[in-house]
Design a protein that fits this description.
The chain is of the alpha+beta class and 112 residues long. The chain has one domain (2-111). Helix content is 33%, strand content 24%. The chain is built from three helices and six strands. Helix 1 packs across helix 2.
Length: 112
């Protein structure tokens, strides 16, 4: 179980595999100079609710992983997360889709 820490304050535990995919999307957006919001749900053990942070080029973020191995990358999941990051609601963790899902096929067709 990894951890996303924002500005030394808000933090959330996220599975290493999911955190890797979120990191790919976040860093890609920031490389392009695109700020965005990131929202996660708090665990019921700490009161529930949700947290939203504004992520921009000056943000201080830490992606802390417990595992030593880089997980394989699911392109369909990266695409799905990027889709949410580009929407007005901002980035949020979605369930991992199966490789070759409709979103991935639609994106492949658009590139050709």
């Amino acid at each position: 179980m990894g951890k996303f820490i924002y500005e030394g304050g808000p933090k959330v535990d996220i599975d290493d595999r999911a955190l890797t995919h979120l990191q790919l999307v976040m860093t890609a957006k920031l490389r392009r100079g695109e700020p965005f919001s990131f929202t996660w749900k708090e665990d019921a053990s700490i009161g529930g609710g949700r947290v939203t942070v504004w992520v921009h080029a000056g943000s201080s973020m830490v992606f802390r992983y417990t595992g030593g191995r880089q997980p394989s990358i699911n392109r369909a999941w990266v695409d799905a997360l990027a889709f949410t990051a580009n929407a007005p609601s901002g980035l949020y963790l979605t369930p991992e889709p199966t490789e070759g899902t409709k979103l991935e096929q639609d994106l492949d067709a658009a590139v050709r």
